[in-house]
Amino acid sequence: MIELSSEQVAQLDAVRRDETIEKLLLEVRAQDPDWFARHGLTGGTSYLAGYRRHAEGFGITDPQVIEDFMRYGLMFPDFHRDDAFVSWMKRTVADSPEQRFKDYQSVMTFVWKLKNATWN
Fold first, then answer.
1. Taking the model in full, what pTM does it have?
2. Which residue stretches of the chain have pLDDT < 50?
3. Structural domain spans, the chain
């Protein structure tokens, strides 16, 4: 069995984090080529890395939830600056930051469905 040092584990984590951004940018390039053309590879990478930092700033550590946070930032730019969102994420509760973000997504999906009268 291979044993990795904490530095090697950190390096692998950094590679995985960058791969997530690359994966998202490939999806964006395919689904929204205009967005990708406006931002380019460097701008898109910076944009998503910023959302990753914001997620971590709210205490989110789960890689999948960080990816979801970045995706949400692609759909709803600057959502992380909304006073209601910040209050929601910083409220004193027993649940994790990951759970608070998932709950926020659920509430916003419900609100969107109400506004758009789509019930499926």
1. 0.81
2. none
3. 6-116
